[in-house]
Amino acid sequence: MKNTSSRGTSGVAGRKNGIPEDDSFLSPRQWAVAETHRTPAALMRLPLPKRIRALVKLHGTPLMVIDKRILIEEYKRFCQLLPRVQPYYAIKSNPHPDIIKTFRDLGGCFDVASQGELKHVLACGVSPHRIIFANTIKRPEALTFARRARVKLLTFDNEPELYKIAKYHPGAQVLARLKVANAGSIVELSLKFGADQELITPMLLKARKLGLKPVGVSFHVGSQCTNFQNYQRAFEATASILREAADEGLKLSMVDIGGGFPIRHFKAETVTLETFAAQMRRELNRLFPKEIALIAEPGRALCGPAGMLITRVAGRSIRNNKNYYYLDDGVYGDFSGMVFDHCKYEFRTLKKTEKFLSILAGPTCDSFDTIALSVELPELEVGDVVYVPNIGAYSCASAVVFNGIPPAKVIVV
Ligand SMILES: Cc1ncc(COP(=O)(O)O)c(C=O)c1O
């Protein structure tokens, strides 16, 4: 089933250790940076059960641990699988300053969706020419801010936006976002974004008339896209736009293949970027000559596998003949991806005893705050750990404080 979603993003300005100060809405208590949480890196090399116990002892729960080694591996894997494609990490998936700095140090570029995210990335020491403002709808103030900050690369998908860009960010480089098939992707984006193919070249020509620099085409195949056909069709449509624009005397130089690259959230999932990377490389080489710069905006693929959420059982009962466990994190917190990202997760425990059909719920006084209605789990006691791997993307990024219960502390180690 297709889902429509505009996921929440968090973004902030910051000065001290990349942590926001005055105008921020990322709370430093939640988004703890390395300098403040001081978790020894050696701890991450302990066998998993020991590592989890040590982390819980040090930080308590709920705790979102982002493994820096996995971030680096995933970034390098992306670059190896798609060597022609420069990744612009979509920070909406997880804006932790230490993730941004990790990718910054690997030569990464960044996709931001708002003025807040833009300020945040700049405060993390990223230079403006390594940033794309890839929300097709931007507030006038955000455009003025981007111009002053010398962030030049922007996307758009409609004419009113072009006029706005021309007014508030004259001379900006623009990519027209094409509406492409999102068939089978878990998060559908094409309902809200992208213009029909026949409108793209005329809009790029219009951009030139307005004094902007039309540089290329962008698209997004939908998040967690396991259907390569979405990419294939988007590549072909984009190549045809590039030819059409050239016929009109407009030489485009950049193609932004967006995000959507799938990851394994739980063992049963088999398709990842690795599955179709060879095909993707072949098609990119066939359709786009070497002088076309290829960029992408991966979010989930870079930070999802690095994240592990550690929770504990805060209460338990038996309801409808099933074990019913109330965790210290829930749907309003770091499981918010179940709502906004339509995500499913794998729940693990440190116990190896017999399993029973169980229910997991969050800590708030809302029955909507139910995490899993039938999951096989060992008998758990209050204080026992339930942890979730591969939950680094679209989780803490959209968590809120509800019932006065703060989301997990997020650390990168
Ligand atoms: C414009 C844009 N770029 C990139 C992304 C990141 O997508 P993903 O996490 O699927 O790679 C998103 C996600 O919503 C997006 O809206």
Overall geometry comes to: elongated
State the domain count.
Answer: 2
Q: What is the residue-mean pLDDT, rounded to a whole number?
A: 93
What is the CATH class designation of the largest domain?
Alpha Beta
The tally of beta strands, per DSSP, is 16
Tell me the span between the first and last alpha carbons.
36 Å
Distinct ligands: pyridoxal-5'-phosphate
Residues in helices, as a percent range = 25-40%
CATH superfamily of the largest domain: Alanine racemase
Q: Biggest sheet, in brief?
A: 8 strands, mixed
Compressed to H and E, one letter per element, the order equals HHEHEHEHEHEHEHEHEHEHEEHEEEEE
* Quaternary structure state of the chains depicted: single chain
CATH architecture of the largest domain: Alpha-Beta Barrel
Nearest-angstrom radius of gyration?
22 Å
Structural class: alpha/beta
Query: What share of residues are in beta strands?
Result: 15-25%
Question: Uncertain regions: pLDDT < 50 for 5+ in a row?
Answer: 1-22
What can you tell me about this protein's structure?
Helix content is 30%, strand content 20%. By secondary structure, the chain is an alpha/beta fold. It has two domains: 68-303, Alanine racemase (TIM Barrel, Alpha-Beta Barrel); 308-412, Beta Barrel (Lyase, Ornithine Decarboxylase, Chain A, domain 1), CATH 2.40.37.10. The strands form two sheets. Strands 1, 10, 11, 12, 13, 14, 15 and 16 form an eight-stranded mixed sheet that branches. Strands 2-3-4-5-6-7-8-9 form an eight-stranded parallel barrel, surrounded by six helices. Helix 9 (228-247) packs parallel to helix 10. It is elongated. The chain starts with 33 loop residues before the first helix and ends with a strand. The model is unreliable at 1-22 (pLDDT under 50). The structure holds pyridoxal-5'-phosphate. Residues 90, 93, 111, 134, 189, 220, 223, 258-261, 297-301, 393 line the site of pyridoxal-5'-phosphate (PLP). Pyridoxal-5'-phosphate is lined by residues 90, 93, 111, 134, 189, 220, 223, 258-261, 297-301, 393.
